[in-house]
Every structure is written in C-alpha cells, then in structure tokens.
Design brief:
Order of helices and strands: HHHHHH
Helix content: over 70%
Structural class: mainly alpha
Strand content: under 5%
Oligomer: single chain
Largest sheet: none
Number of strands: 0
Radius of gyration: 16 Å
Number of helices: 6
Length: 110
C-alpha cells in the first residue's frame, strides 16, 4: 500500500519531497518507539513506519530518472544491495544490542 501511494504521490509532487518526507516520518516513528507506553502503541507505530518504507521504490524510480541507460543497472544494483544488506544487518545489530537491554536497542537505533 505504501509503495503504490508514495510512488503515485511522487509523480505529482516530485521525488525529492516524497523521499525526504518519508525518511523524516520514518525517523519520527523510530524516535517515538523509544517512549511508547504499550504494545498497542508500538504496533501502531510499526505499521505507520512500514507504510513509509515505500521509499525504496521511490528511490529506485529516482535513480532511473537521474541516470543514463548505461549507468542504470549499476546504480539500481547498488540500491538493491544496500536494501538487502539492511535487511540482514538490521535485525542482527538490533538483536545484539537487545542482549544488553531492549530499551537500549531502541534508544541506540532511534
């Protein structure tokens, strides 16, 4: 849902404003996760943050807009590699920090 909505929005208002707004909203959601008072609030913030993860598709479209046909494959591969690396490293680092304490992990990565 986030991908479709955000990519359509980026067609109308521009890629950079959508990317910057979504990254700011994601940061705000992560920061709010530090101070939540219940599991329901944490789940609601996670759902909202998940909506704003549509930035990956917008970033790929932005790369396609800004590169030549010859460069496009290389730059899209870089975006894909960074995305895949974050999927692997994020939970690993979060789990290692959660061994210290769960609030510490949230505070560190917010």
């Amino acid at each position: 849902i986030g991908n479709m909505t955000l990519c359509t929005l980026s067609d109308h208002v521009g890629r950079k404003p959508v990317l910057c707004s979504c990254l700011a909203a994601t940061c705000a959601c992560y920061s709010a996760m530090v101070v939540v008072g219940s599991v329901q609030q944490l789940i609601a913030l996670r759902v909202l943050q998940g909506f704003f993860c549509g930035t990956v598709a917008c970033a790929k479209i932005y790369v396609c807009d800004c590169t030549t046909v010859e460069e496009r494959a290389e730059y899209l591969a870089n975006v894909g590699s960074a995305s895949a690396l974050s999927i692997v490293m994020g939970p690993a680092l979060g789990g290692a920090c959660a061994l210290v304490s769960i609030p510490f992990a949230f505070q560190l990565f917010a």
